[in-house]
Write a structure and sequence with these properties.
CATH class of the largest domain: Alpha Beta
Structural class: alpha+beta
CATH topology of the largest domain: Glutaredoxin
Helix content: 25-40%
Largest sheet: 5 strands, mixed
Low-confidence stretches: 1-30, 40-47
Number of helices: 5
CATH architecture of the largest domain: 3-Layer(aba) Sandwich
CATH superfamily of the largest domain: Glutaredoxin
Oligomer: single chain
Shape: globular
């Protein structure tokens, strides 16, 4: 049996005969297996999507309206305030929010809020001044989304920022380490 060689780099290139490959070598069987996998994937990928089926709603954190009030609530519980600086449509922000912050918030009853980059939404700062989400993000000099900030009373950072998603395998432990560091600082006040 003879196979043809085809280059992915130039799909228009003519196919050339290659060395004979027999079924005994296992290569032909392997090639047939991958072809079946490819056909199965295409069959599933091309299935019609039922009309009227809505995608699951995206999980959200509360948008900050008053950092002062959110910090007061956290301080009453001797906890830090965690702030996710997010960007609309950012898949990494969604991952941090849904896979790490929301579960941590529910498990530990933490005060966690979201502040959106580029958002004109009104916001009261820690000093009770009127601002916007975007202006506050710029005041914090946050340039990468997602960024998680950890605050203690009176609105000072209690642990190093967690910038970006980094390696998902280690993100949860880094988040927890910084949260515990911020918690210790908040309880020392």
């Amino acid at each position: 049996m003879s196979w043809s060689v085809w280059s992915r780099a130039d799909p228009s290139a003519p196919r050339q005969a290659a060395n004979d490959i027999t079924a005994d070598s296992g290569v032909a069987l392997q090639r047939g297996h991958f072809a079946m996998q490819r056909r199965a994937f295409l069959a599933v990928a091309l299935l019609p999507v039922p009309v009227g089926v809505a995608a699951a709603p995206e999980l959200q954190l509360p948008l900050a309206a008053s950092l002062r009030d959110a910090l007061a609530q956290a301080s009453r519980a001797s906890e830090p305030l965690l702030v996710l600086v997010s960007l609309d449509g950012c898949p990494y922000c969604k991952a941090v929010r849904e896979q790490y912050l929301i579960p941590l918030r529910e498990r530990e009853s933490l005060a966690v809020v979201q502040v959106d980059m580029r958002s004109p939404a009104r916001l009261q700062t820690f000093a009770a001044e009127a601002s916007t989400h975007d202006a506050q993000v710029r005041a914090w000099d946050v340039r990468i989304a997602p960024t998680v900030l950890f605050f203690k009373h009176p609105g000072v950072e209690a642990a190093p920022r967690l910038v970006g998603l980094g390696t998902p395998d280690y993100y949860g432990s880094r988040l927890e380490d910084r949260w515990l560091q911020a918690r210790a600082a908040a309880r020392a006040v």
